[in-house]
Write a structure and sequence with these properties.
211 residues; alpha/beta; six-stranded parallel beta sheet; 12 strands
């Protein structure tokens, strides 16, 4: 008898006539299980979750995206902001003259990214229930380093990118792409629950929500 057989034998003896455990539930929520919420309610829920995570939020019509981006950067006092390929020109057409969009081609070094005042990107999908914004390195999103190095992150989310649940978000995403899931500013806490922000990512997350 091997040691493995002996250990398993002792386990069976110890269990004796114990009751058979109930079957594991498999009634998971799937992408086709909707929340029953109206589109406006989804946006309100997303805003509520983002604010709870200490993110900053601006809301307005899609036609005002450029104005809201400009206002956010001006109030931040930003001067040089990383802008990946694929960001819609309309997001940049209202920038103050003092704000310089900095491209990422060729790729900026970590030191160069750290020297910028922030980064402006879009996203792949946003999850209302969890207040999570997901990036997949698609057009207007850039590589992962853009999401992690700059201290200030400005993300534009459109209403058609907002879903209710994580399963619905997964149905829209390609699992082979590099996915970055963002739920509020980067934060952690020590054993005494002292919260520290900006440890492994942006200290400030601001979201422009276009409806």
């Amino acid at each position: 008898m091997s040691a493995r057989d002996e250990v398993l034998g002792r386990v069976r003896t110890a269990l004796g006539d114990a009751a058979v455990p109930p079957p594991v539930r498999r009634d998971y929520r799937t992408a086709d299980h909707g929340s029953g919420m109206a589109p406006a309610e989804l946006l309100d829920l997303l805003v509520d979750r983002l604010v709870d995570y200490r993110a900053l939020v601006r809301r307005g019509p899609a036609a005002e995206a450029g104005a809201m981006v400009a206002a956010a950067l001006q109030e931040r006092g930003a001067r040089r902001v990383a802008v990946p390929d694929g960001v819609p020109p309309a997001w940049l057409d209202r920038l103050p003259e003092r704000v310089e969009p900095v491209g990422d081609r060729p790729p900026l070094t970590a030191a160069a990214l750290d020297g910028l005042d922030g980064v402006l990107t879009g996203c792949a999908v946003a999850i209302a229930e969890t207040g999570t914004i997901v990036l997949d390195a698609g057009p207007g999103q850039g590589r992962r380093a853009l999401s992690l190095v700059p201290d200030y992150r400005l993300v534009v989310v459109t209403a058609d990118q907002v879903v209710a649940t994580v399963p619905q978000a997964l149905a829209r995403l390609d699992p082979v792409r590099p996915l970055t899931w963002i739920s509020g500013p980067s934060a952690t806490s020590d054993i005494e629950l002292n919260r520290v922000e900006g440890v492994h990512g942006p200290r400030t997350l601001e979201v422009v929500l276009c409806s």
